[in-house]
């Protein structure tokens, strides 16, 4: 008898209807699964958006001990190892480079020309972009590098 009473209380077994058994459906909304799903979706979107930015520029910059973070306005020319050229992240032909650079430096002559070139490129691959930048009125020209860790 005593063991049955303990087991009955621990399992919360009611022997009759008169003990207050509630047979109505529960109508409260559990917000924890909704919150968890919202956070999971946010995390997925953050990961995907990180992969989307700069996906066109497959470039490995050379390392430098004196590389600094960008602090002023830059006009960026990216020279990729496959021969493609980008101006501020947009693909252009080499023949278009001079006209577009001239227009950008005419509008804002204080901007710095930043040339980002893949580390596998030789100086002779980069020199034409440097010469065009000088001819278009770039007062300052910087070469992109990544800081050594």
Description:
By secondary structure, this protein is α/β, with parallel strands linked by helices. About 40% of the residues lie in helices and about 15% in strands. It has four helices and seven strands, in the order H-H-E-E-E-E-H-E-H-E-E. The strands form two sheets. A five-stranded mixed β-sheet has the order 4-3-2-5-6, with helices on one face. Strand 3 and strand 4 form a beta hairpin. The radius of gyration is 32 Å and the shape is elongated. The chain starts with a helix and ends with a strand.
| Pattern of helices and strands | HHEEEEHEHEE
| Biggest β-sheet description | 5 strands, mixed
Category by helix and strand content: alpha/beta
Low-confidence stretches: none
Brief account:
By secondary structure, this protein is α/β, with parallel strands linked by helices.
Topology record:
Layout: H1 2-10, H2 31-52, E1 63-64, E2 74-79, E3 85-87, E4 90-92, H3 94-107, E5 112-117, H4 123-135, E6 140-143, E7 146-147
Parallel strand pairs: 1-7, 2-5, 5-6
Antiparallel strand pairs: 2-3, 3-4
């Amino acid at each position: 008898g005593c063991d049955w009473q303990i087991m009955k209380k621990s399992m919360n077994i009611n022997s009759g209807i008169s003990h207050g058994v509630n047979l109505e459906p529960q109508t409260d909304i559990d917000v924890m699964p909704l919150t968890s799903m919202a956070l999971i979706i946010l995390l997925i979107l953050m990961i995907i958006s990180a992969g989307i930015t700069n996906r066109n520029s497959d470039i490995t910059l050379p390392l430098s001990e004196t590389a600094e973070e960008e602090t002023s306005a830059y006009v960026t020319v990216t020279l990729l190892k496959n021969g493609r050229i980008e101006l501020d992240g947009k693909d252009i032909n080499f023949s278009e480079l001079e006209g577009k650079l001239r227009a950008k430096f005419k509008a804002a002559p204080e901007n710095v020309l930043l040339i980002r070139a893949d580390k596998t490129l030789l100086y002779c691959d980069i020199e034409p972009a440097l010469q065009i930048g000088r001819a278009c009125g770039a007062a300052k020209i910087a070469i992109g590098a990544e800081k050594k860790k």
